[in-house]
Amino acid sequence: MTDDILRASKREAMEKYGFGTEAMKKIKVCPSCGEARPSDEKTCPFCGASLGDETLYDAYKERHVFCRNCGEVAPNGAKFCPQCGKRINQ
C-alpha cells in the first residue's frame, strides 16, 4: 500500500469510531455542564446553557500544533503533518 492509501484508511477508521478532525468538528461541549452535543445545537438540552459556535476541534486546535496546509492537528513536536506530509511551521 502507498502512504496515501494508508493515511486515507487510518483517517476513515478514526472517523468511523468518532475520532479525528472531522468527528471533532461535529461536536460541541457545554461550557456549563460538560455534556457533548452535536455542533448544530445552540442550547444545551440538559442545563439550558448557550453552546456558542466553538466546536471541540476549535478548542483542540487552540491548544495544539496544527498543519496550516490541511488543518490536521499534529502531535506536539511534529515536524511534518501526519495527514498531508507538509512541513509544519511552529
Report the β-strand fraction as a percent range. 5-15%
- What gyration radius follows from the Cα positions, in whole Å? 15 Å
Strand order of the largest sheet: 1-2
**Count of runs of 4 or more consecutive helical residues:** 3
Q: Note the run of SSEs as H and E.
A: HHEEHEE
Helix content: 25-40%
Q: Choose one word for the global shape.
A: elongated
- Span of the ends, CA to CA: 30 Å
Total beta strands:
4
Mean pLDDT: 86
Largest sheet: 2 strands, antiparallel
Class based on secondary structure composition and strand pairing: alpha+beta
Low-confidence stretches: none
Structure description:
With 90 residues, the chain is of the alpha+beta class. 29% of the residues lie in helices and 11% in strands. The chain is built from three helices and four strands. It is elongated and about 45 Å long.
Salient structural properties:
3 helices; 29% helix; 90 residues; single chain; two-stranded antiparallel sheet; alpha+beta
Write the layout of secondary structure elements.
Blueprint: H1 3-16, H2 21-24, E1 27-29, E2 36-38, H3 56-63, E3 65-66, E4 73-74
Antiparallel strand pairs: 1-2, 3-4
Short description:
The chain is elongated, with a radius of gyration of 15 Å. The protein is built from three helices and four strands.
